[in-house]
Amino acid sequence: MRVKALETLLVEKGLVDPAALDEIIDTYQNRIGPKNGAIVVAKAWCDPAFRSALLTNGTKAVSDLGFYGRQGEHITIVENTPEQHNMVVCTLCSCYPWPLLGIPPSWYKSDAYRARAVRDPRAVLAEFAVTLPEGQAVRVWDSTAEMRYLVLPMRPKGTEGWSQEMLAELVTRDSMVGTGLPKSP
Amino acid sequence: MTRVHDMGGRHGDGPVVPEAEGRPVFDQDWHGRALALTLAAGALGQWNLDISRHARERLSPKDYTQFSYYEKWISALADLLVERGVLSRDELKTLVPDGPSDLADKKMLADSVAGILATGAPVDRNGPAPRFDVGDKVRTRLPAENQFVAGGHTRLPGYAAGHMGRILSCHGCHVFPDAHAHGLGEDPRPIYAVSFAAKELWGDHAKEGDEVILDLWEPYLEPCNG
Fold first, then answer.
1. pLDDT surpassing 70 at residue A1
2. Residues B99 and B141 in one domain
3. What total number of domains does chain A contain?
């Protein structure tokens, strides 16, 4: 295996610490993932002042919750409304808000998603079993720079009085990329 | 002028295949290893993020198309290690080290990983005052080519080149990848979220009211009064 061979060579040269690699893998495998983003979304649904701060300065609002770091140095939150659905792609590579969602799933990195999300977002949404109501326009955000985007989906109906923790359970990864909707209660 | 990584709007890729949430982050162990090795090698400070993106984009179209995601990463990493003199071509070929590296004191240690990942590398800088205001009509440059280096790195996708859009917001000044990927310094420039009507980009098949928004540096944009 080529990766193992390259790792061994770099370790022998004194350039790489295998324990540091284990630590990086553990971070993204077990500690940083879409549960972070779900906390942000659920809090925005419960706390109007936080929602407003989040939409004004996403980087600061999520940093204040402890979500900051590599591939999440600049964050903009885009809010879905009955008139507008947001969806995020990176056509040139696979830019993704790591501190909020972790490492992107394979479909996000696939040629098909990168090629088609910008041209035919509604057909791509249909492949995720999402059909938008008539009158809801689509905004596709192509992550061409270091700004990372997270979609704030609409709060599901029938969740009045729910706690932030219960609401976070309804927030899916795909709903924060814009290829899905939150779960129904 | 087309480049293989610049695939936005391309036809013929077939459906997107969604995945259940909660699946393992790395399908195979070596995927995580490839990602971690790339981050750890980056910490040696011999290149920046724009240089490493460009290294992946420079893979031959044949390799880029055939390689899996993390094969692209590892292949680009091997190229960079040799180009920057971190490894010799011989070392990479024989896998026998030719003595210790003088970069060893820059090695990322396990107990510094959390701090490095949490710190990140913000790209906002002081720079020139923005030339455009929110709401201004602009036209993107055509062709989508690096203006400093022929065939160089750029973040203006081909599908958005030569089109009319509107300034949605300004993010301040960010490091300019077209310069930064080629050893020309950070050269910070104003950067904007620019909105394009889907019909402007794709013609009559697109739906009225739909938009595509890109983050574009000021040198990619010209005023548009038409």
1. no
2. no
3. 2
By the 8 A CB rule, do A113 and A95 touch? Answer: no
Residues in chain B: 226
Confidence of residue B1 (pLDDT cuts 50, 70, 90): low
Are B111 and B150 members of one domain?
Answer: no
d(CA B42, CA B53) in angstroms, rounded, equals 12
The domain containing residue A24 runs over which residues? Answer: 1-31
Residue B24 lies in a domain: no
Tell me the CA distances in angstroms from B189 to B6, B49, B208, one per residue in order. Answer: 22, 17, 32
Give yes or no for a contact between B222 and A176, defined as CB atoms under 8 angstroms apart: no
Q: Cβ separation of B19 and A105 shorter than 8 Å?
A: yes
Query: Domain span at residue B201?
Result: 125-223
Question: Contact B92/B84 with Cβ under 8 angstroms?
Answer: no
Cβ of B41 within 8 Å of Cβ of A16? The answer is yes
Of A20, A33, A109, the CB nearest to B40: A20
What average pLDDT does the segment B51-67 reach?
96
